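[09:14] KT: can someone run the structure on this one? pasting the chain below
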Amino acid sequence: MKNVLTLIVFSLIFSCCTKKFATNEIPEEKITYGSGGGFSGYYTEYVLLKNGQLFQKLKQGQDLIELEPITKRKAKALFEKCEELNLTTMDHQQPDNYSHYIEVTTTEHTNKVTWGKKEDPISGDIKEFFRELKELPNNNKNTK
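[09:31] RB: done, structure tokens below
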């Protein structure tokens, strides 16, 4: 009887574990965000997965670097906030010399919101959400 109970406990523990993805197997559902342009044309880009894994790419063509993950609960809240802010359907493409963007990819589609022009600013809620996303790597300074 003890063996059966032990087996059930271990099965429950391991079934609740979240799959960890390698940089070459990023799943469809993700939030990609970043900033860049200007003189250098370089963009710093981040990819957040639903399981809390966080990746960074410093310039075009560079491989992703895995950063310290955030909690799955925090990641879920950020994905829900994308829905609340309509980032999955919003049509806002106003890049400038130096631009910011948030791209939300679901199993159904991808939508990218880009802004930079002062004449056609993005809403304050989205700017605040972007700042929250940009702080994630600062709160998780150690890379893997």
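[09:33] KT: thanks! The first strand starts at residue 30 and ends at 37.
[09:34] RB: yep, looked fine to me
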